[in-house]
Write a structure and sequence with these properties.
By secondary structure, the protein is mainly α. It is built from 11 helices and no strands. α2 packs antiparallel against α10 and α10 packs antiparallel against α11. The radius of gyration is 27 Å and the shape is flat. Its main location: membrane. One of its GO terms (biological process) is amino acid transport.
């Protein structure tokens, strides 16, 4: 039996090899320096052009517009999620009629701009005013806020349906076979086995869709809804100060960053059992 008579003396750490300065790295450094310069100029402009009177006068209007924006996005996301489930089921259905109807809906609303859809709802449905009054829903479509909510809902429902369909299809088929082998009803297996796994897969795309909807909600200002962008347009029309749009951008950026961190925390909580 052999054994070591002497220990190997400690060796110094390997010398760090300097990375060569390539063209790509140099271009990256230049772009970062340019963006840092722009950020510094932006901060200087905000501080130098700060007007307390304007902030005091239009600050409450910005907060009111922020509340309108958040309420529009929150309600449209929830309603769109409720609508996306039957759409996703229709896309997964073996019935060609249901599949093609759902596909046509999703194809149209994903392939056309939200602004065009908003105009079709706000201006186009006015052609059918007598019919809408006959069924008692004209009160809904004559209001700009409801039209904006309806357009955002049907738009995000198409995106959420495709997200959900892809997430459901990503769940291994063996999960369904195992549930069937245990005698679990298909509906219960879908609700308690397939759907929870699919929602974890769809969590990050859902967050991206909500962020896109927050930024896309600014289009409702065109149809006189006084959301955050609508109040910004009002403030600019009274002051002609471009910083009104700068403050709106800061508000939108703050919302997106808050949502991004919240979504990352939710994802960490829900997928902590998957970490190795």
């Amino acid at each position: 039996m052999s054994y070591a008579e002497t220990l190997i003396p400690p060796q110094p750490a390997p010398r760090k090899v300097a990375k060569p300065i390539t063209t790509a790295r140099l271009a990256g450094y230049i772009f970062v320096a340019i963006w840092a310069l722009f950020a510094a100029l932006l901060v200087y402009t905000v501080i130098n052009g700060w007007d307390l009177e304007k902030f005091t006068r239009y600050g409450p209007r910005y907060l009111h517009g922020l509340g309108i924006t958040l309420s529009l996005v929150a309600i449209s996301v929830v309603c769109g999620a409720l609508l996306s489930l039957p759409l996703a089921m229709a896309r997964l259905s073996s019935s060609r009629v249901l599949n093609w109807l759902a596909y046509g809906y999703i194809y149209f609303f994903r392939g056309t701009p939200l602004l065009a859809q908003l105009f079709l709802v706000y201006y186009g449905l006015g052609i059918f005013r007598p019919q809408l009054e006959a069924v008692g829903i004209w009160w809904f479509f004559r209001d700009a806020w409801y039209c904006g909510l309806f357009a955002m809902t049907i738009n995000t429902a198409a995106y959420q349906a495709e997200i959900l369909r892809g997430a459901i299809e990503s769940v291994p088929h063996g999960q369904r076979e195992a549930a069937a082998a245990l005698g679990i009803h298909k509906f219960i297996a879908f609700r308690k086995i397939i759907l929870p796994q699919a929602l974890i897969v769809a969590l990050r795309p859902y967050g991206n869709e909500i962020i896109l909807l927050i930024k896309g909600s600014a289009v409702v200002a065109i149809i006189t809804v006084l959301d955050l962008m609508g109040e910004t347009r009002y403030a600019f029309s009274r002051t002609f100060d471009y910083q009104t749009y700068l403050w709106a951008a800061i508000f939108y950026l703050s919302i997106v960053e808050a949502l991004r961190h919240l979504w990352a925390w939710i994802e960490r909580r829900l997928t902590r059992h998957l970490k190795r």
